[in-house]
Amino acid sequence: MSSDLGTRILGRDGLEVSALGLGCMGMSQMYGAADRQESLATIHRALDLGVTFLDTSDVYGDGHNEELVGEAIAGRREEVQLATKFSLSRTPEGEQVIDGRPENVRACAEASLRRLRVDVIDLYYQHRVDPKVPIEDTVGAMAELVQQGKVRHLGLSEASAASIRRAVAVHPIAALQSEWSLWTRDLEVAGPDGSTVLGVAREHGIGIVPFSPLGRGFLTGAITSPADFAEDDWRRTHPRFTGDAFAANLRLVDAVRGLAAEKGVTPGQLALAWVLAQGDDVVPIPGTKRRRYLEENVGSAAVELSPDDLAHLDAIAPPGVAVGGRYANTAYTYGDSPERAA
């Protein structure tokens, strides 16, 4: 596999992926209406640019996103490192449910394989840890999928340090997907036992796959008012995008914009470059449904940050700088999971 982006390795078993991935969720939900043809064209353009690490989930659009990705990669499967997830679903009333039971692991994997039109999933994540099911049971069922040749590598998403330790005792974990950006640095914050999620992941050779590395688009500098969101964009009700929090968080964006201007890059490219600079085991997956934003994101790989640049960014965006919670409902974050202290 070759590209101008270069590649990085996730996990000790050598999952090689493009240094930048593509989050496909927004092509099916959350961020306003999507254009199917533009979404397909964006995935094709990503592959042409060497962005070959594609991220989806069975819950995105209730299966629509996996079907879309499957259609997009038909005929180009050998170019792609394909990641999907299971364990989250929605009730008819729209309530999210976490299900880590072994029988659900198996059923979800079979359904994902069908929707994606592939024989094997390169990286299979538990989307959220189920506090009602021992993680050893869930990962044990995931490991069986590896033994059967249906999955190549295993991952966790938004898992706590305690869950990571328990999971790796059952099977190697290649990647941890969690939110990480200049305005969400929770991975770096020590828990009650003094350890950080980031530190425990690295202790076990687990690669880090940051989602929302652009702060759900806020760090691009393109969002200046809540009125910039479409009526059906979920950010209209997000704690960091409403009321006084919005104005407070704009100050962080202004500081990022100032440094970006000095370096002759866009704020989004600077924010992505910061994430990429956090280590060779870090592979951010900025999401977009448009080719022009994809191309801008790819340009971040060429941005070089000096030690002074990194120190400056650390000073203007320390852990906890963002005002407002990560979600309106915190039930699905590692920080609020009942299993965190297990």
Write structural notes for this entry.
It is built from 10 helices and 11 strands. With 342 residues, it is α/β, with parallel strands linked by helices. It has a single domain, classed as TIM Barrel (Alpha-Beta Barrel). A 7-stranded parallel sheet has the order 3-4-5-8-9-10-11. Strands 1-2 form a two-stranded antiparallel ribbon. Helix 6 links the parallel strand 10 and strand 11. Helix 3 crosses helix 4. The radius of gyration is 19 Å and the shape is globular. The C terminus is likely disordered.
Label the structural class.
alpha/beta
Helix segment tally: 10
Biggest pleated-sheet summary: 7 strands, parallel
What is the CATH topology? TIM Barrel
> What string gives the helices and strands in order?
EEEHEHEEEHEHEHEHEHHHH
Strand order, largest beta sheet: 3-4-5-8-9-10-11
CATH hierarchy class name: Alpha Beta
Instruction: Return the CATH architecture.
Output: Alpha-Beta Barrel
Strand content: 5-15%
GO molecular function: oxidoreductase activity
Pfam families: Aldo_ket_red
InterPro entries: Aldo-Keto_reductase, NAD(P)_OxRdtase_dom_sf, NADP_OxRdtase_dom
Keywords: Oxidoreductase
What's the layout of helices and strands?
Elements: E1 7-10, E2 15-18, E3 21-23, H1 36-49, E4 53-55, H2 64-73, E5 81-86, E6 88-90, E7 96-98, H3 102-116, E8 121-126, H4 135-147, E9 151-157, H5 161-168, E10 175-179, H6 197-203, E11 207-211, H7 243-263, H8 267-276, H9 291-298, H10 307-316
Parallel strand pairs: 3-4, 4-5, 5-8, 8-9, 9-10, 10-11
Antiparallel strand pairs: 1-2, 6-7
Helix pairs in contact: 1-2, 1-9, 3-4, 7-8
